[in-house]
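Annotated sample (chain length 496).
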Amino acid sequence: MAQQMKTLAKETALYGISSILGKFLNWMMVPLYTYVLANSSEYGIVTNLYAWTALLLVILTYGMETGFFRFANKNTDEAGKVYSTTLVSVGLTSLLFAVSCYLFSQPIADLLGYSNHSEFIAMLGIVVAMDAFGCIPYAYLRFTKRPIKFVALNLFAIFINIFFNIFFLVICPWLMQKQPELVSWFYNPKYGVGYVFIANLFSTALVTVALTLEVFVVKFDFDFALLKKMLRYSLPLLVLGIAGIMNQTLDKILFPFLMPDKALAATDLGIYGATSKIALVMLMFTQAFRYSYEPFIFAQKKDKNSMDSYADAMKFFIIFSLFIFLGMVFYLDIFKYIIQRNYWVGLQVVPIVLLSFIFQGIFFNLSLWYKLTDKTHFGAYFSIIGTTIIVSLNILLVPTFSYMGCAWSAFVCYFTIMIISYYFGQKYMPVKYDLKTIGIYVAVAMALFGASFLIETTNVVISVLYKTALFSMYVLLMIKRDFPLNTIPVINRFFK
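Output written by the structure step:
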């Protein structure tokens, strides 16, 4: 079992490289956007439209990633047929979506309030379609245990995206001043935020071309009967996925419609979007864990010690999540410099967003019981409950409390569905989680977080030193209870 945890940790780390760097791109682009874009309302456009694309990506994959893992692991001899069938299905629906967005870009733009820039809709529609199709080759790489190839393709996508963003937002404006004849034939200095979407379109197209090599690794074998079985399994996950992603993005989608002052709404949404990026470290970890955990739970199903493995995975996930939480909130005086000073007014949302991400990660961890027992409709029910909570609270709180209402709505949403999922999981597939150890870590982490407010000072050095001492206490707890130094690679050379 220890070896299984090491394998899971290794794959989490490998997948995490691309996940962390991908999210780090968002980090690095935030200061760029806050300095280059005219004002926070333009960044609000990015926040709003990318919230829509996240939702649409879930719809266009309609649970087929998990469906692929389920049916490919169920009969590994038929894995090629499962992969081919999944590719055809997702590929056709993605193509139809891209064509529709292109043809109806103006009416959609009018509806969303971007009437003067219907091309934003067309570009993002094509990007989402390519991303949805690309999810299946990526899933096949995870299934065939090729994390190196997975990471390499992700890194390629990341660096290409970085390049085009820097090219359009930094290099082209500089060349317009120094040698305008080089770029004036294609570059418009007034287009501003539009180049964010152009950069995304170019980079996604190149990555899609690279992924086509993984499309032809198996013999084409489409099975309509198999597709019907997969859809029967996966469509409840679509409801789950829609509700889940809406819980993450719905506040940013609804925000412009809930604030009475539309100008203030655009400005506040930009602030909320920028400050929320600081909490992305937690999302990086949960996403890296998700990439390795979903194949892990299906592969472990036949192991007699699988329940112990699931319990250990939950415990270690929570331990490291709290480690990241404390590291982020204790050093927020340093992390805040990744965004422009004008956005600092929104930093109070960071601890709330971090805790919401932890609840979200635990909820995903708990999802193993309804995925393994083929009761995926429960996941849909839970996420619908969460969506109802987040919509209701946003409508109630946002008009008065602006983005703080968004943050607390997400907090309540994920905490609630986490508790409900745990209750039903213990009923249908009881896992003996180490609640005592988990409780100790949670209690200590919250106590240290509370203690960080006991000394308030404007001296950053004193504040960081004090919080470093608090952070060290949590690290010592980890070493004492679960991570003896003589068991940690490299470090164990110096400790017996």
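Annotation: The chain has a mean pLDDT of 82.
Annotation: The first helix runs from residue 2 to 36.
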